[in-house]
Design goal:
This protein is α+β, with helices and mostly antiparallel strands. The protein has two domains: about 5-70, no CATH class; about 85-170. Helices cover about 15% and strands about 30% of the residues. It contains three helices and twelve strands. It has helices at about 35, 90-100, 160-170; strands spanning about 5, 10-20, 25-30, 45-50, 55-60, 65-70, 80, 105, 120-125, 130-135, 140-145, 155-160. The strands form three sheets. Strands 8-9-10-11-12 form a five-stranded antiparallel beta sheet, covered by helices on one side. A hairpin with a 4-residue loop joins strand 2 (about 10-20) and strand 3 (about 25-30). Helix 2 (about 90-100) runs parallel beside helix 3. It is globular and about 45 Å long. The model has no long low-confidence stretch (mean pLDDT about 85).
Length: about 170
Amino acid sequence: MKRTAIDADHTWLCEHVTRNGAPAASTRLSVSPTEAAKQRSPGYRVHSRCPACGTLWRVWLESREASPMIEWDAELDKCALRRPRVLDIEQIIALVVESIPSTIVSQYDPPFVADDAGVWIFAVPGNDKDIQLESATGMCPFLVEHNSMKSTSEAIMATSIQQAVDEIVRYLR
């Protein structure tokens, strides 16, 4: 996932667009000294949420990097500002939510900056099924696995956005 450099004053920009895609004012985010103190050891991250668009950021102060997490929840979607969709995973999320509006998507949040954050879990409240997509870049191809598979050898490789969407929707319905 693309990482943003943190300035010397522990701040960075969350860039926004309006719902119709027009550029909007950016928000300068920062990590408070209290949050910074929570970093127990090198490599640990803290979180910060943009008050303007709701984007949750993972922040690694030691390496001076921040990375937005890709998530979707009906409550977060009410915000007037959005980051532009640029990754395949964001298009997949939008298409799945269009088919199954109650879908909740969460991105794996590894504790260390070097760990792979390229795993997204799709679930529907009240349904014990979940399905995950994995790609280190957020772009196709995606490894598709769900909790009905007996082993990783049953995983499917989705080579297109539509194939990934079809696998998720078929499994969650």
